[in-house]
């Protein structure tokens, strides 16, 4: 069921979203060559609990960690392990703190050891930037009366024009007191189709984009999702509030600029 948030709930979502952005910023700074995903996981737990919040992923349907860390050909739901990051690894961190019963959900993809665009292989940078901008293309469609198909179409258009593919098996989702609720926000679609967007809705937009084919598989751990062809994958995510005239990005990080 889609929930329309009250003013009180919206304020709670703003608080959760702000903390999620701060958590992601703090964790991204720790990603360096030689550091392990497991070390990031422990740091995420310590940081989140210190803020009086709870890491939602831990024990969610049996997930064994405090955040998802997806490396290279891992599309999503990567379980933190002891393999040290190497320079050039493509790493996505996905965090979801629970603050006073409400969830803030956000993620970003970076390249290990890269301090500037010049430090990243051109095609890798292009994949990551296409994914990031496609998320913003989708976000800019959000307003009362628009449809979920408008969001998906905007994302799919940019991704496929760049020669990449959108993962269809996993999507954005409604969020609030519940981690994953209606609606499902698919990152492909046709304009004007799907559920109409209403003021007071809160949901995530989080396109997963593969450098190769869109097809994926789930490993034997029942969580880790990889590209079938071994190609690199990137993802970005924000939690969005539908306002009377458009959108508010609840998980916007300090210094993060909305592209025009």
Short account of what is shown:
The protein is an alpha+beta fold.
Describe this structure as you would to a colleague:
It is a single chain. By secondary structure, the chain is α+β, with helices and mostly antiparallel strands. Helix content is 26%, strand content 23%. It is built from 4 helices and 17 strands. The protein has helices at residues 7-28, 37-50, 122-139, 148-161; strands at 54-55, 68-71, 74-76, 90-95, 97-99, 102-103, 106-111, 165-166, 172-174, 181-185, 202-205, 208-210, 216-218, 225-227, 233-235, 238-242, 247-249. Helix 3 (122-139) packs antiparallel against helix 4.
Features of the shown structure:
260 residues; alpha+beta; three-stranded antiparallel beta sheet; 4 helices; globular
| Average predicted confidence as pLDDT | 98
Report strand order across the widest sheet.
Answer: 1-5-6
Number of structurally distinct domains: 1
- Report the principal-axis shape: globular
What is the tally of helical segments?
Answer: 4
How would you name the CATH homologous superfamily?
A: Creatinase/methionine aminopeptidase superfamily
What is the name of the CATH architecture?
Alpha-Beta Complex
Q: Write down the CATH topology.
A: Creatine Amidinohydrolase
Which parts are unreliable, with pLDDT below 50 for 5 consecutive residues or more?
none
The radius of gyration computed from the alpha-carbon positions, rounded to a whole number of angstroms, is: 17 Å
Task: Bin the helical content.
Answer: 25-40%
Order of helices and strands: HHEEEEEEEHHEEEEEEEEEE
What is the beta-strand fraction? 15-25%
Number of strands: 17
Structural class: alpha+beta
Distance between the termini: 33 Å
The biggest sheet amounts to:
3 strands, antiparallel
CATH class: Alpha Beta
